[in-house]
Amino acid sequence: MIVGAGLAGLMMAYLLERIDVPYTVFERSAEVRPLGSVLSLNANILALFEQLGLLDEVLAISKPCTSLDLFDGSMQSIGSISSSGYQEVAGYPAVVFARPQLYDLLISKIPPKKIIMNKKILSLEQNTLGVMIRCADGSNHHGDILVGADGAYSGVRQGLYKNLTKKKLLPKSDNEDLDLGYVVMVGVTDPLDEDKYPELKDAHTHFRQVLGDKNIAWQSISVPGNKICWRLGAQLESEEARAQMLRNSEWGPEANEAMIQQFYDLPCPFGGKMGDMIDATPKERISKVYLEEKLFETWYHGRTVLIGDACHKMLPQAGQGAINAMQDAVILANCLYDMGEPNVTNIKAAFQQYYDLRYPHAKTQFANSKFMAKLMSGQKLSERIFRNLMFNYMPAFLRVRHYAKAASYQPQASFLPTIPPRGTGPVEPQMPSKRYAEELKQKEAGAPPELAVSNVMTEPVSLE
Question: Where are the residues of the annotated region Disordered (predicted)?
Fold first, then answer.
């Protein structure tokens, strides 16, 4: 059972679809909502998309990002970071597109009958026989494994942690609130006039951010379809952040005229004012979200495991949140593929292997995301000085060296033919699958492969 039909949950579902493991996705929303703004992907996940046969579809909805341009509030250039040399060493371009389009691509690969909408999880119970979730509509659902892919305020995590707290098994830090630092409003415009915004004609994206006064910043990024993704953001003081935390809500269109008016007359990096972008965006595609961060220590217990924002919520400036969520999915799928029968012993071993493989990398990317937030939006004197050095004086060889190191982590599905390295840079080795190797031998010998993962329970199991 997968709770959450976001990018992490959909990737998890698609990978299980590829290895013929029965699953159901439970989503709390009553309907699919095309929300969000810009999303970027790079070599850290595009190798997997190529392996799954989805790379061409991703490239068709995206544009390569050749640089990141930074301006001050009066639209004077602060500096620019070029991505020149990235594709050569990484093997794939860094691409940018509207987030809803990737969501539409992934959900199109999942049989509709396997996604159940309007299922808000209230609690969970698990024992040696299985795991059960209780939903707000009064229904109960049973399975062998529960995957919490339901975001930063995960109901699965809350239920799991509640049980672990009763047993005194949860680290104190895991019961602490997420750190909330920013409130943002995002949207994607309808198609715009190329003559009014000529940069839309370019084959590459224009990624432009403005640093304003009083801890505010805003972005405009061109994407395919003559559209512009935009984001308005304000950094919150600690007391204000805590108050906002209590009022946190999921992604959704919200009335927040005060924030719109705060940015409405500010200059747009593509010309005109940000109000032009807001007016060109249907109200139902404008959403307000809070940007939190927290790296949880506990990712699994019993038959329940967490992926994506449910176990590591990262700030978005490094563009690693969605990438790491989908990396979680592929590594967990690899571990389940080699798990064997879904008994408690095998499940625990698979979850531990998943944690061992993913936690160190997630920890590194969590720190990197925090650093990039300061680099992109920090207003302290030290942060301004460092930003000036990074955007204007970094030698090209150091930038390319950084790209090679950053792109070296390219996890793939262990149950599919491996895509060889496409770039000149190194690629970290991946743990091979014993089951896949054995199935190749059996296939070569003409014998049918044995199923190593059994079906989800067909009869409900009482967990009372």
Answer: 415-464
